[in-house]
């Protein structure tokens, strides 16, 4: 009997080791499953649900679901991609995502995923929430309008930088990102532009000042190749 | 989309937009010659026809920011078999919608009364001529006001994207935009 364990991803066998999640094993085998809140350096968060797959007729988050021998996983199917598109559309209407005026455009994972899944409109009614920016810090700007609540900055600041600068507060539609300072201002923390938390935002919330369009539109991460290709090249590195 | 024996009738307009999408439409350059073999224009800034008659395709640039925009949009929906939202403003509200978290009255006061350079102008007042359409309290993408059949995002969408989309549609295919011509910026 063979030692290698396998499951089927869209009909193709994927080898995995015990303890790996579906997403980790698929990624290692060169198969892209869309994701936003998942990051290889952190435990699964399971909040964005973009990595949703169908296993035995049930929807599961592939970032959190351990791979099991003989599983049949559906990922790149019209049904799953349709659900992912609807999740993206909800993320777009909940915040203020004005791509034409965002300096993260072209480097933004939310936008790149919308391109990859061919999301042509937000479909739902926009919320247009009021989320003032925090420009108090000398080196970093916070534009809360674009936050998708992936908590990567919260986790990076707490678990890697040891500073615990960010948090999510309130619930449901009132949920928002806050800075852990009495004033609520980033300038009143020991946040630094070299922190991991300053360099992990998948969208355009945490922006380094005075960089803006130094790398012009057209020469950005997802301009030449779609995110499904770029993400797999990162695995090879 | 096949209509035997005649050209397709196309209407276009710009609501709360900057006409950048229309400029990009003209950027299809020599394809314009192919296009006029297939379509003729009804109401459009290109023809200066003021009201929309029965059309096959209506193309809307810009979001909905005032009462007149609502009337024009409904006129297009009523007369066009297929309605297309062209560009970021029609699709998401775009730049004009960035006022949506502000009070529109305070916006007008700021612009016409209190902002630097205006506060000292004698007799300054918020324009209230009855000819001026009333502003809505929020700017809306057009799909929040009428049913929209297709969306072409981008600020503006490239001429290439517009041409790809229209030729797909006219040829009777499901129009499709994907990387790299699908862009939101």
Q: What's the number of domains of chain A?
A: 2
Instruction: Give the number of helices of chain B.
Output: 6
CATH topology grouping of the largest domain in chain A: Alpha-Beta Plaits
Class per helix and strand makeup of chain A: alpha+beta
Instruction: Give the uncertain stretches of chain B in residue-range form.
Output: none
Looking across the biggest beta sheet of chain B, what order are the strands in? Answer: 2-1-3-5-7
What does it look like?
The complex is a heterodimer of chains A (237) and B (185). Chain A is α+β, with helices and mostly antiparallel strands. Chain A folds into two domains: 5-76, Ubiquitin-like (UB roll); 96-225, Alpha-Beta Plaits. Chain A has five helices and nine strands. Chain A has helices spanning 22-28, 78-94, 109-116, 152-160, 227-236, and strands at 5-9, 12-16, 52-55, 58-61, 72-74, 140-142, 166-169, 176-179, 206-208. Chain A is globular, with a radius of gyration of 19 Å. With 185 residues, chain B is an alpha/beta fold. Chain B has a domain at 8-99 and 136-171: NADH:ubiquinone oxidoreductase-like, 20kDa subunit (Rossmann fold). Chain B has six helices and seven strands. Chain B has a five-stranded parallel beta sheet, sandwiched between helices. A two-stranded antiparallel sheet of chain B has the order 4-6. The two termini of chain B are 29 Å apart. In chain B, 39% of the residues are buried. The mean pLDDT of chain B is 93. The chains are: A alpha+beta (237), B alpha/beta (185). Chain A binds chain B through residues 92, 96-102, 105-106, 111, 114-116, 118, 120-123, 125-126, 128-131, 217, 222-224, 226, and chain B through 85, 88, 91-95, 97-98, 100-101, 138, 140-141, 143-144, 148, 150-153, 155, 176-180, 182-185.
């Amino acid at each position: 009997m063979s030692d290698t364990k396998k499951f089927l991803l869209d009909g193709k066998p994927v080898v995995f080791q015990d303890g790996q999640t579906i997403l980790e094993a698929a990624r290692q085998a060169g198969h892209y499953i869309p994701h936003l809140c998942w990051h290889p350096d952190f435990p699964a968060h399971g909040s964005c649900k973009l990595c949703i797959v169908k296993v035995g007729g049930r929807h599961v988050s592939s970032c959190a679901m351990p791979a099991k021998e003989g599983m049949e996983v559906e990922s790149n199917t019209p049904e799953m991609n349709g659900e992912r598109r609807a999740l993206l559309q909800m993320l777009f209407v909940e915040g203020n995502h004005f791509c034409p005026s965002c300096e993260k455009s072209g480097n933004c994972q939310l936008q790149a995923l919308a391109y990859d899944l061919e999301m042509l409109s937000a479909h739902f009614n926009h919320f247009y929430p009021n989320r003032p920016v925090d420009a108090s810090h000398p080196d970093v700007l916070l534009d809360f309008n674009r936050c998708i609540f992936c908590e990567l900055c919260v986790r990076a600041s707490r678990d890697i930088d040891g500073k615990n600068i960010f948090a999510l507060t309130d619930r449901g539609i009132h949920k928002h990102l806050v800075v852990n300072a009495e004033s609520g201002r980033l300038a009143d923390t020991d946040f630094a532009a070299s922190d991991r938390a300053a360099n992990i935002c998948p969208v355009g919330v945490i922006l380094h000042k005075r960089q803006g369009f130094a790398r012009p539109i057209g020469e950005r991460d997802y301009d030449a190749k779609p995110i499904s290709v770029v993400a797999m090249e990162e695995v090879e590195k | 989309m096949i209509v035997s024996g005649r050209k397709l009738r196309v209407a276009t307009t710009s609501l709360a937009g900057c006409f950048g999408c229309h400029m990009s439409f003209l950027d299809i350059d020599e394809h314009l010659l192919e296009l006029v073999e297939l379509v003729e224009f009804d109401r459009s800034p290109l023809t200066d026809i003021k009201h929309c008659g029965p059309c096959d395709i209506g193309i809307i640039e810009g979001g909905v920011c005032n009462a007149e925009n609502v009337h024009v949009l409904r006129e297009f929906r009523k007369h066009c078999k297929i309605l297309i939202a062209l560009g970021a403003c029609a699709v998401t509200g775009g730049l004009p919608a960035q006022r949506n978290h502000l009070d529109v009255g305070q916006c007008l006061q700021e612009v016409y009364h209190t902002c630097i350079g205006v506060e000292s102008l004698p007799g300054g007042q918020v324009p209230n001529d009855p000819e001026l359409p009333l502003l809505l309290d929020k700017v809306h993408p057009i799909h929040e006001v009428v049913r929209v059949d297709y969306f072409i995002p981008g600020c503006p969408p490239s001429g290439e994207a517009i041409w790809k989309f229209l030729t797909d549609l006219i040829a009777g295919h499901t129009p499709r935009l994907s990387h790299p011509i699908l862009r939101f910026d």
